[in-house]
């Protein structure tokens, strides 16, 4: 009996994690725009990545860690995948669950990037990885077209908190 | 006595001018912006997948060149391979061929090795050179940051000037969903002797990983 409760508990625990990890929403530009124009005192870290991009994948754990360590400080991390929408079920969802990403993962299905890249930052050439940190209430915004690590993210965040 | 009195002032003034000139020079050197629209492209020489060395000056008798920084590994590049072949098919005969350059570090992605470049050019039936920019010097000179990244050069009497920088069209995912053909529009205008209307666009692409970064 105890054993079966334990098994049930394990199943619920891991099953729950699995469900959480597998959640990837396909979004349009509007969802990103909503983040960019929100007025609350929330600091958003928006990272543009893709499953096949080595430097992007290398920095994923740093964003995960920031997300865990700063969740009580009004910091939200959104990982925006630039994978093709057709690769969602065969590639992106399995990747996210394999890497046990627990944060918010979006797949931006908006192929006319020339229309929106400058709205993220005029400094952005379009290369990934790229990261935007924004807090509208504090009227602060920084953008990076480069790899970032945990220490750098923490350093940049300190200006926002 | 009078002369000596002025000496420190002259020295200070001279030093100040030199220092400020040096500072100015430094500030214009960063960031490496690459060629602007209208800028003249310096000649370059790179090794082609067929073993020959190709230089931009080989194209002196052409009306222009569609320079495409691309790569083997990048899904955006892969999605555009057939469209790039299509561009060469359409415009080479009109004196405006494609010249593809791979500036990626094969150390980052083995797929970008010279051997793999040869294979890809063969598999996809590249009708144009596919050059390896091993030192990444050409990408840096152009200011190419990602793949694919297109630079359309017009031949102005033996001098190549940049007329367009950006993406091929407005839908990397689906060629059937394309509504704006930036490169075709630009080349067509140049061939008709008209100015290019949209001279710069952006696209999401795979970053060219710099060896010295």
Automatic annotation (TrEMBL), chain A:
Keywords: Cytochrome c-type biogenesis, Disulfide bond, Redox-active center. PROSITE patterns: THIOREDOXIN_2 (PS51352). GO terms for cellular component: cell envelope. Its main location: other. InterPro entries: AhpC/TSA, Thioredoxin-like_sf, Thioredoxin_domain, Thioredoxin_ResA/DsbE_sf. Residues 12-161 form the Thioredoxin domain. GO terms for molecular function: antioxidant activity; oxidoreductase activity. One of its GO terms (biological process) is cytochrome complex assembly. It is found in: Cell envelope. This is TlpA family protein disulfide reductase. It comes from Runella aurantiaca.
From TrEMBL, chain B:
InterPro entries: AhpC/TSA, Glutathione_peroxidase, PRX-like1, Thioredoxin-like_sf, Thioredoxin_domain. The keyword Oxidoreductase applies. It comes from the Bacteria. Keywords: Oxidoreductase, Peroxidase, Signal. One of its GO terms (molecular function) is peroxidase activity. One of its GO terms (biological process) is response to oxidative stress. This is Thioredoxin family protein. It comes from Runella aurantiaca. The lineage of its organism: Bacteria, Pseudomonadati, Bacteroidota, Cytophagia, Cytophagales.
